[in-house]
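Researcher: We are triaging several targets before committing to wet-lab work. For this one, the compound of interest is adenosine-5'-triphosphate. I'm pasting the protein sequence and the ligand SMILES. What I need is the predicted three-dimensional arrangement of the protein with the ligand bound, expressed as C-alpha cells, so it can go straight into our comparison scripts without reformatting.
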Amino acid sequence: MATLSSGRELRWRLESGGEQSLAVESEVLGFEVEARGIKIRALVSETKSISSGRGGDMGKRVRKDYVLEMPTEVIAESWSDSLKCYINSLSRPKRVFIILNPFGGKRSARRIFHSVVRPLLVAANIMYTSQETKYQLHAQELAYKLDLLKYDGIVCISGDGVLVEVVNGLLQRDDWDTAIKIPLGIIPAGTGNGMAKSLLDVAGEMYSIQNATFAVIRGHKRPLDVATVLQGETRFFSILMLTWGLVADIDIESEKYRWMGRTRIDFYFILRVMKLRKYNGHLEFVPAPGHDFYGEPKKESTSHWRTIDTSSRVDGDSKVKQTGYQCPSTSFKDSEWRSLKAPL
Ligand SMILES: Nc1ncnc2c1ncn2[C@@H]1O[C@H](COP(=O)(O)OP(=O)(O)OP(=O)(O)O)[C@@H](O)[C@H]1O
C-alpha cells in the first residue's frame, strides 16, 4: 500500500515489512509509469533510515530507483497525475542552457557533465542544450546572444569567472531588464568555486557537484546583488568581489600555474608573500549607512563628489556597444566622503 500525503510525502509499505518514504520536493528527481508500476527516480541521503521520510539538510546522497506496484494500470495513471501535478507546482526548470568551460579548474567540466550532471538532468526529465566555451569571454557572448525565451535557466559548469561573464553578457543586452531575471545556476568546475559553496551553504546542503546539480533541478533561487565597476572607459559588473593589490595579483598572475589546479593559488600566495610588493593606494569612499566608522573623514569637501556618467559608450576591451544596463546615475555631491591612506 502507498500514500501520497498532499503531494509532499510518498510513503509505502515494503514487502519485507516496514515502511519507506520519500519527500517529493527534496528527494524525488522524476518518475515514469511502466504498466502497473511507477518507477520513482530519487536522490536520497546515504544514511536515510528505512522509516524516515525527512528531506532537507542532507549529507552525501545516492541515486536510487524505487518501483511501486499499483493494483491496476488505472490507479498507476491516477498516481502519476497527482505526482506530476505536485512536481509541476514546484517551479522546477524544464529546459536549461548549459555553458561548460573545459578550461576551468582542473579541466574537469566535461567529465562532471557526462558523469554527474547529465544523468541527473535526464532522470529529472529536464531538457538541455549544452555549449562548451572555446575562448575567453565566449560565455559573455553566448549570454549576450542567447534566445532566452527557449530556456528556464542558464547553468554554468565552470568556476565563478564564467558566471561573471554570463551576468555581464546579460546586462549588455538591449533587453537586460528581462534578461537578468533568468535564473542562473552554477555547478562547480573551477578553482575557487566560491559561489557554488556559498549557495549550497545557504541551502543547508553539503558542498558537492551532485548537490549543486540537484539544487538546479529543484529550482532553488536566491537574489544576487550586482555591483557596477567603472574604470576609465571600461565598465563591468561584479557579483563576487573586487580586489586590488596582493589578492588580485595572486589571482591573475597564478594563471600560468593553472595546471596545478587549486594548489596554484596557495603556491603563488607563498611566492608573492616571500617577495612582497608594496602597494601604494589611496581609497576614497562613501560608506554605506551604518558603516561610517571605516577610515578617516575627508577634510576638503569640494573635490570629492562624483557623478557616475551613464551615457552609452563603447567598451574598450570587448568592443561590445554598451546599450545594455546603464548603472544608476548617482551623485555623491552631498555625501560624507571618507578615506583610507596608503599603504593599505
Ligand atoms: N576554451 C577556453 N580557453 C581558454 N580560456 C577559457 C576557455 N573557456 C573559458 N575560458 C576562460 O577561463 C577562465 C576561467 O574560468 P572559470 O571561472 O570557469 O574557472 P576558474 O578560474 O578555474 O575558477 P574560479 O573562477 O572558481 O576560480 C575565464 O576567464 C574564461 O573566460
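Researcher: Any quick observations?
Model: The chain has three domains: 2-88, 95-225, 279-344.
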